[in-house]
Protein backbone atom coordinates (compact mmCIF):
# COMPACT_ATOMS: atom_id res chain seq x y z
CA UNK A 1 0.00 0.00 0.00
CA UNK A 2 0.95 3.66 -0.29
CA UNK A 3 2.55 3.82 3.16
CA UNK A 4 4.54 0.61 2.72
CA UNK A 5 7.95 2.15 2.02
CA UNK A 6 10.18 -0.45 3.74
CA UNK A 7 13.12 -0.77 4.02
CA UNK A 8 12.91 3.02 4.30
CA UNK A 9 11.75 4.32 7.68
CA UNK A 10 9.26 7.13 8.20
CA UNK A 11 9.98 9.18 11.34
CA UNK A 12 7.48 11.88 12.32
CA UNK A 13 9.05 12.92 15.62
CA UNK A 14 8.72 16.69 15.83
CA UNK A 15 11.92 18.72 15.88
CA UNK A 16 11.25 22.36 15.13
CA UNK A 17 14.86 23.36 15.80
CA UNK A 18 16.29 21.27 12.96
CA UNK A 19 17.65 23.45 10.14
CA UNK A 20 17.52 22.23 6.52
CA UNK A 21 20.61 21.01 4.69
CA UNK A 22 21.24 21.16 0.95
CA UNK A 23 19.81 17.72 0.07
CA UNK A 24 16.69 17.92 2.22
CA UNK A 25 13.33 18.13 0.43
CA UNK A 26 11.07 21.17 0.48
CA UNK A 27 7.31 21.10 -0.12
CA UNK A 28 6.12 24.52 -1.32
CA UNK A 29 2.37 24.29 -0.77
CA UNK A 30 -0.53 26.53 -1.74
CA UNK A 31 -4.23 25.79 -2.27
CA UNK A 32 -3.93 21.98 -2.53
CA UNK A 33 -0.98 22.22 -4.88
CA UNK A 34 2.76 21.69 -4.43
CA UNK A 35 5.73 22.80 -6.52
CA UNK A 36 7.40 20.01 -8.50
CA UNK A 37 10.39 20.06 -10.83
CA UNK A 38 9.09 19.28 -14.33
CA UNK A 39 6.03 17.71 -12.73
CA UNK A 40 8.05 14.76 -11.47
CA UNK A 41 10.34 15.63 -8.57
CA UNK A 42 10.14 17.37 -5.21
CA UNK A 43 12.73 20.16 -5.07
CA UNK A 44 15.59 19.95 -2.63
CA UNK A 45 16.69 22.78 -0.35
CA UNK A 46 19.66 23.68 -2.56
CA UNK A 47 17.34 24.00 -5.57
CA UNK A 48 14.79 26.09 -3.70
CA UNK A 49 17.42 28.53 -2.46
CA UNK A 50 18.72 28.90 -6.02
CA UNK A 51 15.24 29.87 -7.26
CA UNK A 52 13.68 31.86 -4.41
CA UNK A 53 14.66 33.55 -1.17
CA UNK A 54 13.16 32.50 2.16
CA UNK A 55 14.31 33.19 5.70
CA UNK A 56 15.20 30.12 7.75
CA UNK A 57 12.20 30.83 10.00
CA UNK A 58 9.90 30.19 7.03
CA UNK A 59 10.94 26.53 6.78
CA UNK A 60 8.75 24.27 8.92
CA UNK A 61 10.20 20.85 9.72
CA UNK A 62 7.72 18.06 8.94
CA UNK A 63 9.33 14.60 9.21
CA UNK A 64 12.17 12.47 7.88
CA UNK A 65 12.48 9.31 5.81
CA UNK A 66 15.82 7.65 6.50
CA UNK A 67 18.34 10.51 6.26
CA UNK A 68 16.13 12.75 4.12
CA UNK A 69 14.30 15.51 5.96
CA UNK A 70 11.20 17.26 4.66
CA UNK A 71 10.30 20.91 5.17
CA UNK A 72 7.28 23.05 4.37
CA UNK A 73 7.11 26.50 2.79
CA UNK A 74 3.66 28.06 3.05
CA UNK A 75 4.28 31.27 1.14
CA UNK A 76 3.33 31.19 -2.57
CA UNK A 77 6.11 31.49 -5.13
CA UNK A 78 6.32 32.66 -8.72
CA UNK A 79 6.48 29.62 -10.98
CA UNK A 80 9.33 29.12 -13.43
CA UNK A 81 9.57 27.03 -16.59
CA UNK A 82 10.79 24.00 -14.63
CA UNK A 83 9.23 24.56 -11.20
CA UNK A 84 5.45 24.66 -11.28
CA UNK A 85 2.53 23.98 -8.95
CA UNK A 86 0.93 20.56 -9.43
CA UNK A 87 -2.23 19.14 -7.87
CA UNK A 88 -1.70 17.11 -4.69
CA UNK A 89 -3.09 14.06 -6.50
CA UNK A 90 0.09 13.99 -8.58
CA UNK A 91 1.85 12.37 -5.62
CA UNK A 92 -0.15 9.18 -6.21
CA UNK A 93 1.88 8.60 -9.36
CA UNK A 94 5.29 9.97 -8.36
CA UNK A 95 8.35 7.80 -8.88
CA UNK A 96 9.78 6.55 -6.56
CA UNK A 97 6.60 5.73 -4.64
CA UNK A 98 8.12 6.50 -1.24
CA UNK A 99 8.67 10.09 -2.35
CA UNK A 100 5.04 10.30 -3.47
CA UNK A 101 3.97 9.09 -0.03
CA UNK A 102 6.20 11.71 1.57
CA UNK A 103 4.81 14.48 -0.62
CA UNK A 104 1.20 13.54 0.09
CA UNK A 105 1.84 13.30 3.83
CA UNK A 106 3.55 16.69 3.77
CA UNK A 107 0.52 18.18 2.03
CA UNK A 108 -1.77 16.74 4.69
CA UNK A 109 0.18 18.68 7.31
CA UNK A 110 0.39 21.74 5.07
CA UNK A 111 -3.38 21.77 4.67
CA UNK A 112 -3.80 21.62 8.45
CA UNK A 113 -1.41 24.53 8.98
CA UNK A 114 -3.17 26.57 6.29
CA UNK A 115 -6.62 25.96 7.78
CA UNK A 116 -5.58 26.98 11.29
CA UNK A 117 -3.68 30.24 10.94
CA UNK A 118 -6.10 31.94 13.31
CA UNK A 119 -7.82 30.82 16.49
CA UNK A 120 -11.35 29.60 15.90
CA UNK A 121 -12.38 30.80 19.37
CA UNK A 122 -11.01 34.36 19.62
CA UNK A 123 -9.52 35.12 16.18
CA UNK A 124 -5.91 35.72 17.24
CA UNK A 125 -3.06 34.37 15.12
CA UNK A 126 -1.98 30.93 16.28
CA UNK A 127 1.54 30.27 17.52
CA UNK A 128 3.57 27.09 17.00
CA UNK A 129 4.69 24.96 19.89
CA UNK A 130 8.36 24.04 20.11
CA UNK A 131 8.18 20.63 21.81
CA UNK A 132 5.32 19.00 19.89
CA UNK A 133 3.43 19.46 16.65
CA UNK A 134 0.65 21.70 17.90
CA UNK A 135 -0.70 25.20 17.46
CA UNK A 136 -1.55 27.37 20.47
CA UNK A 137 -3.39 30.65 20.71
CA UNK A 138 -1.35 33.22 22.70
CA UNK A 139 -4.56 34.95 23.78
CA UNK A 140 -7.02 32.27 24.94
CA UNK A 141 -4.50 29.39 25.07
CA UNK A 142 -6.60 27.13 22.85
CA UNK A 143 -4.40 24.28 21.58
CA UNK A 144 -5.01 22.19 18.46
CA UNK A 145 -3.28 19.19 16.93
CA UNK A 146 -3.17 17.84 13.36
CA UNK A 147 -6.63 16.87 12.14
CA UNK A 148 -7.17 13.26 11.06
CA UNK A 149 -10.62 12.07 9.97
CA UNK A 150 -11.35 8.40 10.78
CA UNK A 151 -13.16 6.46 8.05
CA UNK A 152 -14.08 2.85 7.35
CA UNK A 153 -13.92 0.63 4.29
CA UNK A 154 -15.95 -2.58 4.37
CA UNK A 155 -15.89 -5.63 2.19
CA UNK A 156 -19.38 -7.12 2.46
CA UNK A 157 -19.25 -10.86 1.75
CA UNK A 158 -21.87 -13.48 0.95
CA UNK A 159 -20.07 -16.81 0.77
CA UNK A 160 -17.73 -16.60 -2.23
CA UNK A 161 -19.15 -13.28 -3.39
CA UNK A 162 -18.03 -9.73 -2.61
CA UNK A 163 -20.16 -6.60 -2.94
CA UNK A 164 -18.62 -3.87 -5.11
CA UNK A 165 -19.99 -0.40 -5.75
CA UNK A 166 -19.32 2.44 -8.15
CA UNK A 167 -19.56 6.07 -7.06
CA UNK A 168 -21.92 8.44 -8.82
CA UNK A 169 -19.25 11.16 -8.90
CA UNK A 170 -15.48 11.34 -8.52
CA UNK A 171 -13.66 8.00 -8.38
CA UNK A 172 -15.23 5.82 -11.09
CA UNK A 173 -13.66 2.40 -10.57
CA UNK A 174 -15.47 -0.33 -8.71
CA UNK A 175 -14.74 -0.11 -5.03
CA UNK A 176 -15.95 -1.10 -1.55
CA UNK A 177 -18.46 0.64 0.67
CA UNK A 178 -16.81 3.38 2.72
CA UNK A 179 -17.69 6.35 4.90
CA UNK A 180 -16.61 8.62 7.71
CA UNK A 181 -17.11 7.82 11.38
CA UNK A 182 -19.74 10.03 13.02
CA UNK A 183 -19.51 11.49 16.52
CA UNK A 184 -20.39 8.89 19.15
CA UNK A 185 -19.96 5.90 16.82
CA UNK A 186 -17.71 2.90 17.14
CA UNK A 187 -16.00 1.64 13.98
CA UNK A 188 -18.31 -1.38 13.95
CA UNK A 189 -21.39 0.83 14.23
CA UNK A 190 -20.10 2.91 11.31
CA UNK A 191 -19.74 -0.25 9.23
CA UNK A 192 -23.34 -1.25 9.92
CA UNK A 193 -24.69 2.24 9.25
CA UNK A 194 -22.80 2.78 5.99
CA UNK A 195 -23.87 -0.60 4.60
CA UNK A 196 -27.49 0.08 5.54
CA UNK A 197 -27.42 3.60 4.09
CA UNK A 198 -25.65 2.81 0.83
CA UNK A 199 -27.18 -0.54 -0.16
CA UNK A 200 -29.98 -1.21 2.33
CA UNK A 201 -28.42 -4.40 3.72
CA UNK A 202 -27.54 -5.65 7.20
CA UNK A 203 -24.25 -7.32 8.19
CA UNK A 204 -22.73 -9.23 11.09
CA UNK A 205 -19.40 -10.84 12.04
CA UNK A 206 -17.57 -7.55 11.49
CA UNK A 207 -13.81 -8.12 11.65
CA UNK A 208 -10.88 -5.76 11.34
CA UNK A 209 -8.48 -6.28 8.44
CA UNK A 210 -5.95 -3.42 8.10
CA UNK A 211 -5.57 0.36 8.18
CA UNK A 212 -4.04 3.04 5.99
CA UNK A 213 -3.25 6.74 6.35
CA UNK A 214 -4.75 8.53 3.34
CA UNK A 215 -3.37 12.04 3.13
CA UNK A 216 -5.44 13.05 0.09
CA UNK A 217 -8.57 13.26 2.25
CA UNK A 218 -6.81 13.87 5.56
CA UNK A 219 -8.03 10.49 6.78
CA UNK A 220 -6.99 7.29 8.39
CA UNK A 221 -8.86 4.40 6.76
CA UNK A 222 -9.77 1.26 8.69
CA UNK A 223 -10.68 -1.78 6.65
CA UNK A 224 -13.19 -4.41 7.77
CA UNK A 225 -14.87 -7.47 6.32
CA UNK A 226 -18.45 -8.29 7.28
CA UNK A 227 -20.87 -11.09 6.40
CA UNK A 228 -24.31 -10.48 4.91
CA UNK A 229 -27.21 -11.18 7.28
CA UNK A 230 -29.68 -12.33 4.65
CA UNK A 231 -29.88 -12.12 0.89
CA UNK A 232 -32.19 -9.23 0.12
CA UNK A 233 -32.46 -6.93 -2.89
CA UNK A 234 -29.94 -4.09 -2.93
CA UNK A 235 -31.54 -0.71 -2.15
CA UNK A 236 -29.11 1.72 -3.76
CA UNK A 237 -28.42 5.16 -2.27
CA UNK A 238 -28.71 6.97 -5.58
CA UNK A 239 -27.36 10.29 -4.29
CA UNK A 240 -23.92 8.68 -3.87
CA UNK A 241 -23.74 5.45 -5.87
CA UNK A 242 -24.18 4.68 -9.56
CA UNK A 243 -24.54 0.94 -8.96
CA UNK A 244 -23.70 -1.98 -6.68
CA UNK A 245 -23.39 -5.67 -7.52
CA UNK A 246 -22.13 -9.00 -6.20
CA UNK A 247 -19.00 -10.53 -7.76
CA UNK A 248 -17.69 -14.08 -7.49
CA UNK A 249 -14.02 -14.35 -6.52
CA UNK A 250 -13.03 -15.38 -10.03
CA UNK A 251 -14.91 -12.46 -11.62
CA UNK A 252 -13.58 -9.61 -9.50
CA UNK A 253 -12.28 -6.78 -11.72
CA UNK A 254 -8.55 -6.14 -11.87
CA UNK A 255 -7.04 -2.81 -10.86
CA UNK A 256 -3.69 -1.45 -11.99
CA UNK A 257 -3.04 0.51 -8.81
CA UNK A 258 -1.61 -1.19 -5.74
CA UNK A 259 -1.58 1.87 -3.48
CA UNK A 260 -4.92 1.64 -1.73
CA UNK A 261 -6.34 -0.38 1.12
CA UNK A 262 -9.36 -1.10 -1.08
CA UNK A 263 -7.13 -2.80 -3.66
CA UNK A 264 -5.46 -4.89 -0.96
CA UNK A 265 -8.80 -5.99 0.47
CA UNK A 266 -10.22 -6.98 -2.92
CA UNK A 267 -7.06 -8.95 -3.69
CA UNK A 268 -7.21 -10.68 -0.31
CA UNK A 269 -10.77 -11.81 -1.05
CA UNK A 270 -9.88 -12.83 -4.61
CA UNK A 271 -7.18 -15.18 -3.30
CA UNK A 272 -9.36 -16.52 -0.43
CA UNK A 273 -7.05 -15.02 2.19
CA UNK A 274 -10.00 -13.78 4.24
Automatic annotation (TrEMBL):
GO biological process: NAD+ catabolic process; NADP+ catabolic process
SUPFAM superfamilies the UniProt entry points to: Nudix
Top EC category: hydrolase
Keyword Membrane: no
One Pfam family this sequence matches: Zn_ribbon_NUD
Known cofactor(s): Zn(2+); Mg(2+)
UniProt entry tagged with the keyword Transmembrane: no
Domain Nudix hydrolase stretches: 146-271
Keywords: Hydrolase, Magnesium, Metal-binding, NAD
Lineage: superkingdom: Bacteria
Molecular function as annotated in GO: metal ion binding; NADH pyrophosphatase activity
Record's GO cellular component terms: cytosol
Catalysed reaction equations from the record: a 5'-end NAD(+)-phospho-ribonucleoside in mRNA + H2O = a 5'-end phospho-adenosine-phospho-ribonucleoside in mRNA + beta-nicotinamide D-ribonucleotide + 2 H(+)
Enzyme Commission number(s): 3.6.1.22
Similarity comment text for this entry: Belongs to the Nudix hydrolase family. NudC subfamily.
Protein name, entry field: NAD(+) diphosphatase
Amino acid sequence: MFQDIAPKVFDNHYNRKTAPSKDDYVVIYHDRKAVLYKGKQLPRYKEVTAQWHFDLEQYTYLFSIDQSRFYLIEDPVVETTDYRYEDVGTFRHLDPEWLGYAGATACHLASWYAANRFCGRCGHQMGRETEERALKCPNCHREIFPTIAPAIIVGVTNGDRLLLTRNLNGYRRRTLISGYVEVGESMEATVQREVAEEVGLAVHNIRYYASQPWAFSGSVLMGFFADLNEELAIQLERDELANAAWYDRKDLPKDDTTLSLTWRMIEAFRHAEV
